[in-house]
């Protein structure tokens, strides 16, 4: 994780973020300049960003939105005040309406981004200048610092290139400091639309989501409608140890073919559900599939990880990728 520090100075009305990145300033600059790259790390997990307009020229405007796990949307804008490529840029950053126009009832802030070369790459220093102590406290209460901390976990992958970062590594597991979230990501060498179809069409799911060796998938009932119920079930073949089981999930939000959020639990088990936020991102000719799982407690997360679930996920995704390559 590249983040070095986040510090808020209530007297100076500033929030300073420092990150050390393994790429030269020119590459980091490109990541901020390209709307398809910056949106991959601008929003924190659970709130992916989309830049609808991104004009990185002095006086230019950007309009972005972040969509929450239940489909709620928060809009923001940038107005570029200063530009010194590839060393620094300054923007007025604020909240916006759906059209990207500033929201006069919410605070705006001046943010200075600086990129300095280091022996290993680039030191990124961003300083946010708040208009008042009240504005600083309001944004802090809204989770600005934690959101920034979580968003920065993805910038390394973007700078390296998603294919290079993830391909051949199997399922990559990342744990968040909150103790209840984990992200599982896997590069799949196929277009987003085909991966989405393989994840959501029951007749295709039955071909690759087979469970352990010696087990069969006995049900693949899938609903993408909000409030709809998906049930996936498996059973051991004759002579194989184990008891049949099923996973049941309720769809919360869908944005096909890029996102599916659902609350999942094991059928007939008295455990609270896990929120699964699955996203698909077009990645250098393939797809980066990522699932952010939010558990009811740190103990639930640890117990889930201890089952060896990542090995099972990798076996399934490898089968999925092979199936897509054969078509």
Beta-strand residue fraction: 35-45%
What structural category characterises the helix and strand content? alpha+beta
Instruction: Tell me which oligomeric state these chains represent.
Output: single chain
In the predicted model, the low-confidence regions spanning at least 5 consecutive residues are: none
CATH class of the largest domain: Alpha Beta
Overview of this structure, please?
The chain is built from ten helices and 16 strands. By secondary structure, it is α+β, with helices and mostly antiparallel strands. It has two domains: 3-160, Alpha-D-Glucose-1,6-Bisphosphate, Chain A, domain 4; 165-326, Alpha-D-Glucose-1,6-Bisphosphate, Chain A, domain 4 (2-Layer Sandwich), CATH 3.30.530.20. The strands form two sheets. An eight-stranded antiparallel β-sheet has the order 1-2-8-7-6-5-4-3. Helix 1 (25-33) packs across helix 2. The longest helix is centred in the last third of the chain and has 18 residues, at 309-326. It is elongated and about 70 Å long.
């Amino acid at each position: 994780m590249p983040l070095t520090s986040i510090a808020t100075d209530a007297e100076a009305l500033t929030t300073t973020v420092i990150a050390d990145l393994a790429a030269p300033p020119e590459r980091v600059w490109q990541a901020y300049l390209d709307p398809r790259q910056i949106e991959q790390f601008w929003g924190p997990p659970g709130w992916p960003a989309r830049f609808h307009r991104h004009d990185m020229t002095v006086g230019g405007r950007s309009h972005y939105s972040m969509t929450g796990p239940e489909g709620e949307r928060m809009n923001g804008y940038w107005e570029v005040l200063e530009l010194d490529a590839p060393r620094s840029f300054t923007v007025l950053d604020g909240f916006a309406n759906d059209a990207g126009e500033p929201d006069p009832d919410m605070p705006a802030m001046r943010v200075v981004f600086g990129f300095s070369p280091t022996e290993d790459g680039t030191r990124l220093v961003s300083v946010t200048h708040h208009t008042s102590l009240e504005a600083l406290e309001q944004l802090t209460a809204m989770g600005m610092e934690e959101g920034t901390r979580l968003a920065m976990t993805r910038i390394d992958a973007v700078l390296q290139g998603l294919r290079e970062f993830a391909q051949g590594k199997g399922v990559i597991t990342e744990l968040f400091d909150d103790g209840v979230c984990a992200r599982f990501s896997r590069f799949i060498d196929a277009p987003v639309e085909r991966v989405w179809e393989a994840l959501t069409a029951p007749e295709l799911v039955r071909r690759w989501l087979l469970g352990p060796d010696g087990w069969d998938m006995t049900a693949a009932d899938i609903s993408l409608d909000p409030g709809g119920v998906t049930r996936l079930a498996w059973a051991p073949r004759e002579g194989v140890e184990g008891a049949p089981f099923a996973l049941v999930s309720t769809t919360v939000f869908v944005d096909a073919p890029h996102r599916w959020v659902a609350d999942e639990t094991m059928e007939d088990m008295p455990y609270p559900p896990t929120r699964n936020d699955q996203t698909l991102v077009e990645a250098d000719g393939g797809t980066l599939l990522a699932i952010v799982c939010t558990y009811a407690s740190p103990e639930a997360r640890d117990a889930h990880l201890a089952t060896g679930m990542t090995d099972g996920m990798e076996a399934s995704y490898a089968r999925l990728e092979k199936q897509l390559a054969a078509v």
